[in-house]
């Protein structure tokens, strides 16, 4: 029963069963620890890890991966150093933590030290190089992949687009035989950040009409950003209004923030303040920070 709850993300129920257990067996704490880690409960996982034998590499790797996803580099490195037996997954998670935090040198060092470089490690390096504007190196890491994957292509598209290489990003996008919604959102965001928001909307309409992919939260955020960049706030508001009926997606705070970010980037402070105040959610701190940053200019 506990294993089923843990597998399907029912962390509270799994924890309750664990607390009822008269004898806390290794399997029980390992299952609960993995459930905490995979559901982003990093603090709970870290605390419970103190009770797990160091030899439980599966549980330790799950927590290490959770630290990496959370961007907690210090905790990831501390756990990695504590592990007596490191697998390729351990090294991969450490490299991803460094890449996500923008620590290029450490990411490359981890990749060079690991016994076997995995696909995830190469993708982490593509991201790290891209974040530092080293597009040629990102492409070299991509070319070193034993097998090209959608995830790797998406990461390189982002690296190209963020560094102004939109032609290369579009060429890679067009060459992909299989795309995900992340691919779709990445190329659209790349167009928008390179002052081609109209092209971003053309890509959205083409893909949408093809019926190959159903827009998700990330794609619709990219659409809203493009509309906002073009100053088409009525169209953006229409998308938020009809999101549930057209796509079966309830508007979330990030959709409003996509519009807010563009308004603040254009110094349209009045409209941005009205939007932040009228959100059907409590506006996050990041939203008010955008407004404050504009006021300082």
From TrEMBL:
Q: Name one GO biological process term.
A: RNA modification
The reply to whether Repeat figures as a keyword in the UniProt entry is yes
State the PROSITE patterns in the record.
PPR (PS51375)
* Residue spans of the PPR repeats: 149-183
Which InterPro entries does the record match to this protein?
Answer: PPR_At4g14850-like_plant, PPR_rpt, TPR-like_helical_dom_sf
Single GO MF descriptor = RNA binding
The alphabetical list of record keywords is:
Repeat
Q: Which Pfam families match?
A: PPR
Name assigned to this protein: Pentacotripeptide-repeat region of PRORP domain-containing protein
